[in-house]
Amino acid sequence: MKKSLFLSIILILTVISSHAQESSISEFDLYGCWVLEKNTRPSNSIIVYKSCEDVAHENVKFGSKISLLAFNESEYQSTAPNVCFTTFMEKGTWEYDENTRIVSLYSGHEWLKKFKKLDPEEYASWGSPEKFKILKFKVISIENNQLTVEIIPKYYGKIAIEDFSE
Predict the structure, then answer these.
(1) Is 99 left (phi over 0), alpha (psi -120 to 50) or beta?
(2) Whole-angstrom distance, CA of residue 50 vs CA of residue 34
(3) Domain extent listing, the chain
(4) Please, what are the averages of pLDDT over each run of 10 residues along the chain (166 residues)?
(5) Are 50 and 35 within 8 A, CB to CB?
(6) Quick check: pTM over 0.85?
(7) For residues 132 and 108, is the Cβ–Cβ distance under 8 A?
(8) Domain covering 24-161, topology
(9) DSSP structural state of residue 100
(10) Predicted pLDDT of residue 54
(11) Which residues are CB-neighbours of 26 under 8 A, at least 6 positions away?
(12) Which secondary structure element, helix H or strand E, spans residue 4, and what is its range?
């Protein structure tokens, strides 16, 4: 009797612990500031973002900072086209699909609204975009203030384009 009770308890604990390891990642879990650390890259498509507070400024990879904020707002580090090695934070939006664990960051929505009003014909010739995708990744795990993701490359035609996080 004691053996069967003991084995039942072990079985129940095993089932509970296996489900805890596969817990879902919510949008709320992703909120925060994330950066890449210099000289750390496990593979070509898998990268590890770390919490901004956990990486010293001098160890942050240039142009890698992203902030995922409430109400699907985001900020990401961008470089100025006319000034070498100057970065600034740009505003954007983001979406998270809990089922697929895919995060998509977008930019240009404010600029495109203005462009649509100023030149509707030219805007229509672009295919009437509402936003531009700047980064897309699949969340693999989030633990110890580290966000491990698989980068989904952008394609233009048949050519994969490198992301700013590379």
Answers:
(1) alpha
(2) 5
(3) 24-161
(4) 50 46 81 88 79 91 88 81 67 91 82 70 67 80 92 61 45
(5) yes
(6) no
(7) yes
(8) Lipocalin (2.40.128)
(9) T
(10) 93
(11) 98
(12) helix 2-21
